[in-house]
Design goal:
Elements (H helix, E strand, L loop, with lengths): L2 H11 L2 H19 L4 H9 L8 H26 L8 H12 L3 H34 L4 H18 L4 H16 L1 E2 L6 E2 L13 H20 L12 H10 L4 H16 L4 H15 L12 H16 L1 H7 L5 H12 L8 H4 L1 H24 L1 H7 L4 H20 L2 H19 L5 H23 L6 H4 L1 H31 L7
Antiparallel strand pairs: 1-2
Helix pairs in contact: 1-17, 2-3, 2-4, 2-17, 3-4, 3-9, 3-15, 4-5, 4-6, 4-13, 4-15, 4-17, 5-6, 5-13, 6-10, 6-11, 6-13, 6-14, 6-17, 7-8, 7-21, 7-23, 8-21, 9-19, 9-20, 11-12, 11-13, 12-13, 15-21, 19-20
Amino acid sequence: MGLDNLLLGFQIAITPTNILIAVIGILLGTIIGVLPGLGGANGVAILLPLTFTMPPTSAIILLTCIYWGALFGGAITSVLFNIPGEPWSVATTFDGYPMAKAGHGDQALTAAFTSSFVGALFSIVLITFFAPLLAEVALKFGPPEFFAIQLLTFSSFVGLGGENPLKSLASILIGFILSTVGLDIVTGQLRLTFGFTDLMKGFDFIVAVIGLFGIGEILLSVEEGLRFQGARTTMNPRAVLETWKVLPRYYRTFVRGSIIGFWMGFKPGGATPASFMSYAFAKRFSRNPERFGKGEIEGIVAPETAAHAAGVAAILPMITLGIPGSPTAAVMLGGLIIWGLQPGPMLFIDNPDFVWGLIASMYTGNVIGVIMVLAFVPFFAAILRIPFAILTPLIIVVCAIGSYAVHNSMIDIWYMLIFGVMGYVFKKLDYPLAPLVLALVLGDMSENALRQSLIMSQGSLAIFFVRPIAGAITALALFFFVLPVLTRWRRRARARAISPVPTRN
């Protein structure tokens, strides 16, 4: 890592314009995180059209700060309303809400925000050191290696994503099918257009994610008929300082949660399993496990540290290998392509100001975020007292404007609604959306890498096995594909081994 590069990044990140953009991003993100049913990925997808006319560095700062804000905002509803604003905030409710009900909401929120900051800082420091090394290795990659990496990405969603592997595989296949709709630029053939001229240009990624994430979640929230009633709190500076005095005694939980979060964020496990895993470990190794679930501050530290560490770590494979580690990173990856940037190792050579501006903005964005949420908790909590019947139409209008702005075409709004229904059905049937979005984003890139590789090898698939790097990555990808079968087989074998052997009378 060159210190000069990091200083260059800070010169970009701390300009007045980018600081203002970071503040706006944190504000929008926290509001999105406070509202149950939206979430970071949905918020980034809905607001992505706002960045079309912005410089790429400012655009990525806005999107990442929206993401950081959503991570912070999810903790507010978990602690004060017992409603997780984000899936990874569920574990925070276990001890956060009991503390708020007992009149210690300010201490619970201080612990949550501080833990989030520590977890994020841990991952940012690792990204600062390891991202250039990873990118340097990736520079040796050719089309076979890139296709192997993309295969590894999809296989890791199947094998390590924690979802039903068959449902993940089905989502990937649907995403690939959707990505092929339109004109094939290599052969000039129309694919899956069925005679409709509007389908010749295919489905725009932005319209799809706004529908899948934004409209789909809104439909789900309307069906659930959310109402918000919770504890009120104010942020007392004395309570903040007293909480900060107590938190260092949980340093083991901070370290353990940060490591778990970084690992789970780097692979497509995500922040939600990281938060639950960190909570379980904290309870397992705590001197007072009986206090968990009744308002134990360590029960807030563990999930929040891991969730933020995972959220930040998901950015690392996106900028170094062009592989997103989370649904939000997948949306940001689409943003990079729209801004004319090529995700992957060449970013460090062709656009160092973008990469290091992004890394430096992670430091500034999280500092701004923790200060803002500590200062304006009552304001953000008051948003939940706006009737949902008013908020919902406003969000749908923002979605429609964002979709229309892509091509100034009404057909995109109809596509958005269709994708919204599709997202709703996926969530009702518990199909993961992230693999579908990933296939939609990477579909063209994967197809091109496959075609180029087969041209190089004159049609032989052996090229993915005989080249050392491609061979190792392909083998790992195939292992991840069969991992669910192996895991199931091992569990059955273990169950048979411990079951009592029937005896003959």
